[in-house]
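seq as requested:
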Amino acid sequence: MPGENLTREEARERARLLSVDAYDVALDLRSAVGADTGPGPRTFRSTTTVRFRCAEPGAASFADLVAPEVVAVTLNGRELDPAAVFDGTRIALEGLAGENELVVDARCAYSRTGEGLHRFVDPEDGEVYLYTQYEPADARRVFANFEQPDLKAPFTFSVTAPAGWRVLSNGTADGVEPSGDGDGAATTRFTPTLPISTYITAVVAGPYHYVSDRYRRTQPDGSVLEIPLGALCRKGLAKHFDADDIFTVTKQGLDFFHDHFDYPYPFGKYDQAFVPEYNIGAMENPGCVTFREEFIFRGKVTQASYEHRATVILHEMAHMWFGDLVTMEWWDDLWLKESFADFMGAFALVGATRFTDGWITFANRRKSWAYRADQLPSTHPVTADIRDLEDAKLNFDGITYAKGASVLKQLVAYAGQDAFLEGSRRYFKRHAFGNTRLADLLAVLTETSGRDMAAWSRAWLETAGVNVLTPQAVYDAGGHITELAVLQEAGSDTHPALRPHRVAVGLYRKDAVAGERAGALVRYARAEVDVDGPRTVVTELTGAERPDLILVNDEDLTYCKIRFDEVSLDTLREHLGELSDPLARALCWSALWNLTRDGLMPARDYLALVERFAGAETDIGVLQMVQAWAQSALHHYSAPERRAEAGSRIAEGALRELRLAAPGSGHQLAWARFFAQVASADTELRMLRGLLDGSARIDGLDVDQELRWTFLASLAAQDEADEKAIAAELSRDDTASGKRHQVRLLAARPSAAVKAEAWAAVMDTDRLSNALVEATIAGFDQPNQRELLGPYAPRYFEAIERIWQERSIEIAMAIVRGLFPSTQGDATTLAAADAWLTGHPEAPPALRRLVLESRDDLARTLRGQECDARAAG
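struct tokens:
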């Protein structure tokens, strides 16, 4: 893996020398089918012609290619010796002319890790499915290129594939011809793309199930914009494929972005492919967006799952403008696409679809990702210092996505929505098909808002850390506010910046508003204020009657952690479920969880709030997030000596809420899953077995195949389902999804032999695909198996440098993160992590970052356990 790196300085020098006119890429994928031909990797032929110019004739540069073999290299008609110019990752180019043509004929390897051209064999029917995934720099695994975002060019692809396959790329198919070899294969040639970066080119090929539709829109000039739409998935998932809903959201999004961006979608067709064993949520390849196929729901899911899918569809669509049309120059400004797409996904979700409460989910779920990332020792400014590709890979994180989106939400409050959108429109028109830096965006926003964007950028984009806002109130003898202030603290000593915040402060009281339900905790006063510095007085609320709850950052206008005064915290302990506004309630749940993670609230107190009030939570997305936090509180932040008691209480409460939930509702399904995940007592496990075999029933609960796997997973981890039971379940669901579940459950069983086998399968060989590595790690790491997992802590630290050297970065990241010994973690494990970091100062920075992040999570866990233990005393 280290030889595949590319530094920012190398990229800048190459961009100074070179400009690319066009690529012509021919891929022969017939080798994807049939038996393996030998001990080496399965390969395909890739032939690339690149036409490019050099600003300094006679200079030298290089092209990128990661391939087992280069057959031939021709530069300007001159044949080069592949052995002399190709080192496995780069092709040396000496004596360049002003205008150049490079032709590379190579044997590239199919991927089993989700990087490059991934090959998947469906165990259900033996069919082969291919798709590409490149970000940030894996197009070079499929064709020779200049792999950096600022060397854009038009691409013309031609793909030869087996008979009967559907083949898609960024452009529209421009003709299909027989391969000429008499094997029934065909070659599809695609229309040239507009200038785009290498990492967003795409090929999808296989016997995919395909559904088509069409988007039509009358433009302001009277012309009609027509966009062909496609949606595809594996044949085995066709019966579950709700393409109509996907097309509905797609059309709503296209309408929304056309209305707000005033720049027609420029890339012709719009296909959306749901593909197997995908490493990420989705990828914004123009004209050929790829998604993980788990967005096709094989069983009943809650509305939160449909909302999440819609958000991802809209996030990727926003990239057609932010990222594809206008692209960052280097990965330092990754936020210019990801932060904007994350914000625009939520903005369009609320403005265009049926999911009008999307900002609640954003506040509760998306921001929690940002808050965690921003408190790690690896936190960084939104606009980051990306030295190389390994840095870039790790910066697809909660800062770049969710914090950046939160900052943009704050910018809209600061500059105004109209100014923000007008700035976006000017940005697209000014930089279409080009590359930009931070200054380019700030320039247009300064024009449209009249605000000092440089100062805003310094505060919000160029500093790290999350501020903490706390209310401080003084009352007179009559119970009225004489002064209300908002105190601002830095998140840590290492990141001391205090930022300007546009916030709303809400005052809430029981029975405050006539007509509200009895006992409701309702807002009766509100003020917006610019918080700047350590203490800001909210003069607008002077004289207001004493509240039961003061909520700073009401309506979630800014990015911050919020705290409560003692009266407000006591109110939430007793009346959280009576808070009538769902967004305010979501913000309070999030703040209470942050108190728990920060070791300021014992885990037992948070679990008591969940036990008492989660059943009354009306927003299904908030409920599922609260349940996930409850699991973390139980397994990580509870004092070890009281964990069993806490688990029993939370499981009893989950079963109670499951029985009380409306039959057939999403809440019932959420409680069923949560109950299975926390069940451990014999009576609880008997209930799961009964729900599986039909001897127990809960009115309205449909135990479909996915829920069966959820129940069986808990039984397997508790030694209540053996290999035979898991095999029997696979026979009911002998599909790719079923296989992943089977692998996970087999690794979850509480046996030393099982753990040894799972460890060896991941650490000692590379025979597992990316999806099965992920499934094995998930099964291996069980919170109730600490003694079994203990011996693997020293083995982990002994192996991770080797893993980083030998595996692809995607697999190495999954292993280093997933197998860090946090579940069995204690002070000894923390010391082992510190010893590794101290003893390996020269380890790759990206590897050190991953270990440092996991070490920090473990230290936070131990502080939380100490807090919980003190409360018990």
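The chain has a mean pLDDT of 95.
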